[in-house]
């Protein structure tokens, strides 16, 4: 990687504020060493493909989802010996020796270092966060099928085409940086995965969540485990609460009581949670209700909170950027084993934050909101940089990238529309051909033999 470092050093004065150099140097070498040491995956003996190089491979796989893994290794020069050629099987073994834990540790280290720093655009002095879930398809190998499972379909349980992984993420809605994530098999619900995320929410914050995360224990863990932590959530139509009093702006103060079955399990629960409930209705829509622990109607006006709730969609945008732009609309992730899937996805999330951080720094340099920077254009811009670094000598890198710097304005998007211009409808008709669901062949059973194997004894039974 020496020639690549020379190229990066040559970019130091390019600019605005060395954006490309910032991206390349965002991962401090000490973090990689700490990730390997903390997870016990340091290469003890000298290998042709050691663990620290495998980390860069996983990041390269995330940045170039359309390239074969072998091509990523060759272009980045990740083999440490003079022989640039390495067998594909050695690359696969190096990945699985590394495992998913170092990538998870590195993602969490980066997320903690970056996601809480920039709170510009928060709400009235509170950091603004969002929680939501999604799922991703994984290759239909036997090991992935057994670990992740398939969701149900029209023909019953496990009817979908691919096994699927479920993931829940916490996003800083101001910086658009991922603060934390949890993932697991499809059978593990979002409510179960999100339990580990509440502790990752910082103090003095407001967290926006969809109604799928409604539960008394979630509210309690979010509010009680920190200082000045608040939530804003949309209620279901059958949500139960006790109205205490009505406020001048039309909202009401209410109590959300713990369910009886929880009280039987744990009579020491602290009791009801006080919330403020705001009812509203958009033109042509059904009445909706949001609940929040921001009960002061003068400090936190109802209309502001109604508008603020829709910031939750930034997480949906992030999921789309991950699936559509980073994964290039691939049918599934690459890996055929669960450990490889987790490792691959942690690498994807880490690179997503690297790109988002560069976007944030560019937005700050241009004095515009982070949402005005195009993720797709930024991703292609960074890919162009690495492709250029692969193809030309280090001395020519600055000159070749000067033109890219001149196109900085191409990253800036127009202001986002606030109203839908076209109605939702199906534009492409489903295929008329019947669906081919396929059937997984049953594993072959070996017949038990009662005859003694004499070949290993060097004789016969005669």
Indicate the proportion of strand residues: 5-15%
**First-residue to last-residue Cα separation:** 66 Å
Number of separate strands: 9
Largest sheet: 9 strands, mixed
Approximate helicity band:
25-40%
Low-confidence stretches: 1-24, 450-462
Strand order of the largest sheet: 3-2-1-4-5-9-8-7-6
How would you spell out the order of helices and strands? HHHHHHHEHEEHEHEEEHEEHHHHH
Verbal overview:
The chain is α+β, with helices and mostly antiparallel strands. It folds into 2 domains: 2-105 and 335-411, no CATH class; 116-316, no CATH class. Helix content is 38%, strand content 14%. The protein is built from 16 helices and 9 strands. The protein has helices at residues 2-10, 19-24, 29-39, 51-63, 69-76, 88-98, 101-114, 142-148, 190-193, 216-224, 260-265, 302-309, 313-326, 338-366, 375-391, 397-406, and strands spanning 127-137, 164-172, 177-185, 205-209, 229-234, 242-246, 252-256, 273-280, 288-292. The protein has a 9-stranded mixed β-sheet. Helix 3 (29-39) crosses helix 7 (101-114), helix 4 crosses helix 6 (88-98) and helix 4 packs across helix 14. The longest helix has 29 residues, at 338-366. The radius of gyration is 26 Å and the shape is globular. The chain starts with a helix and ends in a 56-residue tail after the last helix.
In a nutshell, what does this entry contain?
This protein is of the alpha+beta class and 462 residues long.
What brief labels describe this structure?
14% strand; 9-stranded mixed beta sheet; 462 residues; alpha+beta; disordered C terminus; single chain
């Amino acid at each position: 990687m020496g020639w690549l470092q020379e190229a990066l050093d040559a970019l130091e004065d390019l600019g605005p504020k060395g954006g490309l150099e910032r991206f390349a140097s965002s991962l401090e070498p000490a973090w990689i060493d700490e990730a390997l040491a903390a997870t016990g995956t340091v290469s003890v003996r000298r290998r042709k493909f050691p663990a620290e190089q495998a980390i860069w491979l996983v990041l390269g796989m995330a940045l170039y989802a359309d390239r074969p893994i072998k091509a990523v290794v060759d272009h980045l020069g990740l083999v440490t010996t003079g022989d640039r050629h390495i067998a594909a099987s050695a690359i696969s073994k190096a990945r699985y020796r590394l495992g998913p834990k170092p990538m998870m540790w590195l993602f969490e280290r980066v997320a903690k270092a970056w996601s809480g720093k920039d709170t510009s655009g928060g709400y009235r002095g509170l950091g603004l966060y969002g929680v939501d879930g999604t799922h991703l398809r994984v290759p239909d190998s036997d090991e992935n099928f057994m670990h992740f499972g398939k969701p149900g379909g029209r023909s019953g349980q496990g009817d979908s085409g691919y096994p699927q992984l479920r993931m829940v993420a916490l996003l800083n809605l101001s910086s658009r940086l991922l603060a934390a994530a949890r993932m697991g098999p499809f059978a593990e619900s979002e409510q179960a995965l999100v339990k580990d995320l509440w502790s990752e929410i910082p103090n003095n914050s407001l967290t926006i969540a969809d109604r799928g995360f409604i539960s008394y224990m979630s509210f309690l863990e979010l509010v009680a485990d920190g200082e000045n932590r608040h939530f804003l959530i949309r209620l279901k139509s059958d949500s139960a609460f006790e109205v205490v009093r009505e406020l001048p702006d039309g909202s009401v103060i209410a109590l959300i009581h713990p369910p009886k079955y929880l009280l039987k399990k744990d009579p020491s629960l602290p009791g009801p949670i006080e919330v403020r409930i705001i009812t509203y209705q958009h033109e042509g829509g059904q009445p909706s209700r949001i609940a929040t622990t921001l009960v002061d109607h003068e400090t936190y006006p109802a209309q502001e909170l109604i508008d603020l709730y829709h910031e939750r969609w930034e997480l949906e945008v992030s999921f789309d950027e991950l699936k559509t732009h980073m994964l290039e609309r691939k049918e599934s992730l690459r890996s055929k084993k669960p450990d490889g899937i987790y490792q691959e996805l942690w690498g994807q999330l880490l690179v997503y934050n690297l790109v988002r951080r560069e976007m944030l720094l560019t937005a700050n340099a241009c004095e515009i909101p982070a949402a005005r920077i195009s993720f797709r254009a930024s991703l292609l811009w960074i890919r162009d940089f690495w492709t250029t670094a692969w193809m030309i000598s280090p001395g020519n890198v600055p000159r070749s990238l000067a033109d890219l710097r001149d196109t900085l304005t191409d990253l800036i998007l127009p202001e986002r529309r606030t109203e839908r211009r076209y109605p939702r409808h199906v534009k492409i008709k489903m295929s008329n051909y019947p669906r081919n669901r396929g059937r997984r062949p049953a594993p072959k059973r070996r017949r038990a033999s009662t005859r003694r194997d004499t070949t290993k004894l060097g004789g016969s039974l005669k």
